[in-house]
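Narrative summary of target 7.
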Amino acid sequence: MAKDCFCGCGLHVPWGRRRAANAVGDRIDRDVATFRGALERGHQGEHELELRELVATGGTLRDTLRGIVHGTIDRRQYDKRAGRDWLRRAGVQRGRLAREIARDDYAGWNAIDQSELVHAGRRARGVVTEVRDTGVTINNHPRVQVRIRVEPDGEAPFEVERKVTVARVAFPRAGERVEIAYDPDDHDRFTFRLADLADDGAEPDRLAQLARLGELRERGVLTEEEFAAEKARILGSG
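Modeled conformation, tokenized:
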């Protein structure tokens, strides 16, 4: 049954449609922030113009969708084809950036979430304060609990913890410094490069990279062809 619009305008907009439009609007906001951060923090080569166009037009698309939800814009004015095209192109770039993050071996299993943190989150210095062995090994690599003190500029320090799988030859130690990418509104959302935990220049663990690529394939970010190509690249680099 349709319910009154939550904005109080008195219009009848089905709850399911409102929820779907809001979810798409939130997705657009996250994508635009990620793409903007990617442009600001690194040269994107052949993808630069595409990212700039997505950033420039994403806000308008989001506002249109929310205007339809709130009844301030007639849905007949919405160009569905253009909207679908934006979302398709954004999905391609989102997947590309996530694959790069998986390749660089950042902590965590959700490469899309890691990509958002790396490109749109805040950066801060971190120092390892404690490393505890969990007694678990994965493919003969120890699983450890790492506690890190994050020291943002102009903000109060805070501490975070994460279980990570590390190579025995690159076991992290207290006092080592890492760069943390984090969500200022939720400090439990953070990531860092696993290779930065060790000061011996160890290469990213290939098994961990493959596991992340598998997660991207399961979520539909990678096609079978893209997964096969990335898998061959990782295995061929060993």
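The beta strands are 3-4, 12-13, 122-138, 141-151, 158-165, 177-183, 186-191.
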